[in-house]
Design brief:
This protein is an all-alpha fold. It contains 15 helices and no strands.
């Protein structure tokens, strides 16, 4: 087990380096340090001296990959790529272009993102799996057909519709919840989170339910299900004791995609509801073309996704005793 985890971690290192290289190259193919200085200074006519001063203060006056003016190791370390990208592997996120410490911003904003993402994930997973099992239990009936039509309808509607509609009906018309904002006090925070969590669950219920229904329908036609029925087990017992357990592997695979969003936050939900999480932080950084924040969030998302892959492989051994990690 330890050898497997170590091997997967070693595999992840070149992937993270590749992600860093691609992100760094793409950003500087679009913007040069001079363009970044002009945007951050916020004026149309800016002097060359002001641009040079801005770059010198933030370390953008160095060469990108190789500093020929230096000698020895400094040729590599005294570059923008080393100081802005490779230091991420040591957990040093640096500062944003406006001077704020990115690491502290991430720690402060992780709480609001988790406050939305964890309830959305748990409620959404439990609800969609239950609905999928319900449709499979009544497969071929009008309940199943109606459920499939509703799922397709929900899948066809943009999540923006649910966000704007929820804000208009429940916040503006009925005034049951605030239209936006956030409060760090747990006793008050639920009042601000109940609408975005509900909207996020409803927006994803159609696609997830239909996908889980397909998985369970595939399982229910296998030999072990027919054997269980031949032994006299009811449809409910077959679904929950056998079909659900054997469908856990594809469900766990789908959960991997969700793991980064648990920490990174939802870009649309946080932006529209004014939640000061990592999702809105990323959106603001992209709008301001703040490379320091963007590269930090891309790197953090890559680390979380790779960690999710490793945890998923480990969880396979818990739901399927036939799998052994070597």
């Amino acid at each position: 087990m330890f050898a497997y985890i170590l091997r997967r971690v070693l595999y992840a290192i070149p992937i993270l380096i590749g992600v860093n290289l691609i992100t760094f190259a793409l950003f500087f193919m679009v913007n040069s340090p001079d363009d970044m200085a002009r945007m951050q200074l916020g004026v149309k006519r800016v002097t060359a001296e002001a641009i040079q001063q801005w770059k010198a203060e933030r370390g953008y006056d160095k060469p990108l990959f190789l500093n020929e003016a230096s000698t020895g190791v400094a040729q590599v370390t005294d570059t923008i790529f080393y100081s802005k990208s490779l230091t991420l592997f040591a957990g040093e996120f640096g500062r944003s272009e406006d001077g704020r410490e990115i690491g502290r911003e991430i720690r402060e904003r992780m709480g609001p993102s988790l406050a939305i993402a964890i309830p959305t994930f748990l409620v959404g997973l439990g609800l969609t799996v239950s609905l999928a099992l319900f449709l499979v239990l009544f497969r071929g009936t009008w309940l199943d057909r109606t459920g499939v039509v509703l799922c397709v309808g929900l899948m066809s509607i943009s999540s923006l519709f649910f966000i704007i509609g929820g804000q208009f009906i429940f916040a503006r018309m009925l005034q049951l919840v605030p239209i936006s904002g956030y409060e760090s006090n747990p006793l008050v925070a639920w009042h601000f989170l109940i609408l975005p969590v509900t909207v996020a669950v409803v927006a994803g219920i159609g696609g997830s339910t239909r996908w889980y229904r397909t998985l369970f329908l595939e399982e229910i036609g296998k030999d072990y299900v027919r054997t269980a029925r031949a032994k006299g087990l009811s449809d409910t017992a077959v679904l929950f004791r056998h079909v659900l357990r054997n469908g856990l592997i594809p469900i766990l695979t789908g959960v991997v995609v969700v793991i980064p969003t648990l920490f990174m936050g939802s870009l649309l939900i946080e932006s529209f509801f004014g939640i000061p999480g990592l999702g809105s932080y990323t959106i603001d950084a992209i709008a301001a073309q703040d490379f320091a924040v963007v590269r930090a969030m891309v790197f953090l998302g890559s680390v979380l996704y790779l960690l999710g892959l490793i945890l998923t492989d480990l969880s396979y051994t818990l739901v399927d005793p036939r799998i052994r990690l070597k």
